[in-house]
């Protein structure tokens, strides 16, 4: 498996939306999403295998985002393909 991430993706670990095992206040979650994604109108969530990306998609829905999807293959599919580009570093 190659190391890196999907180009132009942004990192938001779902644990950043929790406090002591429970969801943070919705206003705080909205602020976190705003900081990470800015004014993006279409969101596609991914993770290692597509499982924890669902948590982010659920929170995004609760925050009012509607044009979103979960890439169920996520990094395990993307990173395994030599034909797909990868990015390294923070961007």
TrEMBL record:
GO molecular function: thiosulfate-cyanide sulfurtransferase activity
Membrane in keyword set: no
Keywords, in A-Z order: Repeat, Transferase
InterPro entries xrefs: Rhodanese-like_dom, Rhodanese-like_dom_sf, TST/MPST-like
A Pfam family annotated for this UniProt entry: Rhodanese
Rhodanese domain span: 2-87
Coiled-coil residues: none
PANTHER family named among the record's database cross-references: SULFURTRANSFERASE (PTHR11364:SF27), THIOSULFATE SULFERTANSFERASE (PTHR11364)
Protein name: Rhodanese domain-containing protein
Organism: marine sediment metagenome
Highest classification ranks of the organism: unclassified sequences, metagenomes, ecological metagenomes
């Amino acid at each position: 498996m190659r190391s890196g991430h999907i180009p132009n993706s942004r990192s938001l670990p779902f644990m950043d939306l929790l406090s002591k095992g429970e969801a943070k206040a919705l206003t705080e979650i909205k602020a976190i999403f705003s900081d990470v994604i800015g004014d993006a109108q279409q969101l596609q969530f991914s993770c290692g295998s597509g499982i924890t990306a669902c948590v982010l998609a659920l929170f995004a829905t609760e925050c009012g985002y509607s044009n979103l999807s979960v890439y169920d293959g996520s990094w395990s599919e993307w990173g395994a393909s030599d034909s797909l580009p990868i990015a390294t570093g923070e961007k």
